[in-house]
Every structure is written in C-alpha cells, then in structure tokens.
C-alpha cells in the first residue's frame, strides 16, 4: 500500500511531480490526474494530492502542459493606442484585473499591438497563424466591429469586455451597465434637491456613450424633469469638454452628469474660469472613478466600474467557451456603484 514519506519540501532546487507523489503517497500519474483530470480521482485522494502540492509549492511545467494538451495557456489581448496618447485609466485597471484572474486560472495574457483607429483584424490573424494563443479577450467593442464575426466563423474562443452595440449579438461578453450608473447619479442629485440636471457626453453613435446618456434620460423622465436643451456633446479630452459645457452653465444647470471623469474635469475648468467652485456652485458627477477623482479639489463624485469582477467574468466565460464550444452564449451585465464625494452637494435654496 503506498505510504506518504511526510518529507519536508526540498531546500533549494525545484519541486518535481515525483517528489509530490512521494509526499502524498500516490503514483506520479495520480498527481498528473489531480492537476489535469481531477474528476478521475476520489475526493479524498484529490484532497491529499492537492495538500501535498500546496505544502511543497509545486508548479506544473507550462511547457509540459502545452505539449500534453496542445494548449499554449495564453490569452491574446490587443492593445490599441489612445487618440491622445494617454490610455484611459479604466483600461489599465481592467488589464491588471484580467491578468490576475488569468494567472489564478493557470493562464497568461499575451499583449499585442493593434493599429490606431477603429477595431481591426490586424494582429489577430498573425497570432492565429502561429497558433500562439488559445483565445482572445476583446475590448473597445464598437458598432461595425469585425472581430467577433471573424473569430466566431473560425471557431476561435473569445469574450468581449463590452457589448456589440449592434442588432445582432455575437459571442460571449461581459459589460458594465452604464445606464444604471448615470441613473443612480441622477437619483442622488434629485435627492439633494437638484432639478436642472444636465448631461455632458460623447457624440451620438458611441455605444458606451449612448448607454450612459440613456440612464440620465430615463431617470429625468421618471422624475418629470426636462431634458431639452440640457445635453451637450464633446470629444474625450478636457479642453473640448470645457468648451462644450459652457452652454449648459449659461442655461442655468445646477448639476452636470458627465459620461467620464475626463469630461467632468472639463466642467471643473469651465467653472473656475467663471470664478465658480465645483460642488458649491454646480454639482458635478463623473464616471469611471479614475485615480484623479479622489485627489481633485473638491474630490469628484463618480461612478465606479467593478473591474475586478469584469476581469474574473471574462476569464470564466472564455474558459467555459474553450471547454464547451457549442454552449449558448454567456452574457454578464454588471452594476456599477456611485462613489459620493465633495463635488455633488445640495442645490442652493
């Protein structure tokens, strides 16, 4: 009958599968099954082997796993340059969350460069031609995005951080409910006594931007508040937002819900030009809870996206797709949360 040696982990050098087998009192094949096919083992045997793996700090050889499963254990993620050269902080946080979730599942994220402009297939074809990845995570999804249909046609597993924003939904995706976030922002402002609540967003046609605008409109209608003449559009930079918000201020808005923290910062600049103070003279709410939101003066009330949950769900859906290619599409819509700070105060009486 096999017995455990109960020997301590080796001092120096790497732990091998055979060492783990001796410690657990099982065969090397049983250790391999515990790692790659745990359903083949009895629960008590699986628990004993996993305990030995944890105690000895054993890490399976990635190269050996690749040869055995024909899996690279790599997930491709295309990095697209931002128009102004400064990537939005929200994507940095998402990539960190995605990498951590992939690592916990035994995978690594393989980054590759994508050209500027809209989503394209550049980079995806090359990686697949070299068989370097097991699947892809897509971000910056947009209308007329060619990637989902192209990957689906070739049977390549993928998951999108973001909806398709077109009539026909393809593949698995995880997204944040932007409309829920801006709706919550309006509710908070109404509770503070505001009635002239404006919205500063991106030009119409942006899926994410239109979604956030819809939440503002929905909440305003629910409270019987006018929206006509209370919406302005801006490109994504601070200077453009500073200019775009001025007509809203001239029209007597007491609060502005912005589609991003960058647009909210443009509101700050426009107010200071007039000698006004955000929070005291105009309530401002942003979106994304960027690192600067908490250190602005006054600190910015904003909508925070649950990026850690997004990263975990993206990896979960992608691995499920790899395991069951013909399963129904997985769709996850997560709710953001309002982070209340100093820029949203009660309306002046």
Automatic annotation (TrEMBL):
One of its GO terms (molecular function) is DNA binding. Keywords: DNA-binding, Transcription, Transcription regulation. SMART domains: HTH_LACI. Residues 15-69 form the HTH lacI-type domain. The keyword Transcription regulation applies. The keyword Glycoprotein does not apply. Pfam families: LacI, Peripla_BP_3. This is LacI family DNA-binding transcriptional regulator.
């Amino acid at each position: 009958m096999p017995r455990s040696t109960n020997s301590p982990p080796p001092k120096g050098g790497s732990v091998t599968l055979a060492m783990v087998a001796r410690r657990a009192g099982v065969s090397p094949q049983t250790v391999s099954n515990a790692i790659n096919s745990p359903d083949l083992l009895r629960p008590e045997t699986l628990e004993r082997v996993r305990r030995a793996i944890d105690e000895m700090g054993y890490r399976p050889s990635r190269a050996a796993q690749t040869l055995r499963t024909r899996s690279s254990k790599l997930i491709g993620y295309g990095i697209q340059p931002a128009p102004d050269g400064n990537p939005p902080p929200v994507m940095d946080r998402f990539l960190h969350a995605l990498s951590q979730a992939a690592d916990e599942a035994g995978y690594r994220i393989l980054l590759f460069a994508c050209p500027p402009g809209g989503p394209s297939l550049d980079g995806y074809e090359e990686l697949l031609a070299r068989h370097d990845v097991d699947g892809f995570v897509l971000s910056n999804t947009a209308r007329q995005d060619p990637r989902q249909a192209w990957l689906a046609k070739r049977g390549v597993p993928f998951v999108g951080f973001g909806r398709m924003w077109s009539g026909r939904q393809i593949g698995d995706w995880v997204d944040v409910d932007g409309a829920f976030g801006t709706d919550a922002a309006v509710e908070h402002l109404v509770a503070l006594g505001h009635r002239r609540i404006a919205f500063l967003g991106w030009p119409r046609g942006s899926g994410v931007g239109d979604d956030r605008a819809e939440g503002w409109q929905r909440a305003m209608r629910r409270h019987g508040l006018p929206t006509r003449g209370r919406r302005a559009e801006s490109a994504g930079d601070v200077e453009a937002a500073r200019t775009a918000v001025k007509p809203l201020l001239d029209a007597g808005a007491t609060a502005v819900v912005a589609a991003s923290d960058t647009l909210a910062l443009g509101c700050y600049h426009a107010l200071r030009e007039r000698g006004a103070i955000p929070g005291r003279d105009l309530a401002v709410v942003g979106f994304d809870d960027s690192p600067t939101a908490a250190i602005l003066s006054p600190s910015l009330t904003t909508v925070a996206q649950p990026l850690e949950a997004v990263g975990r769900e993206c990896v979960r859906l992608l691995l499920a797709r790899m395991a069951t290619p013909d399963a129904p599409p997985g769709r996850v819509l997560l709710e953001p949360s309002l982070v209340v700070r100093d820029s949203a105060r009660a309306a002046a009486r």
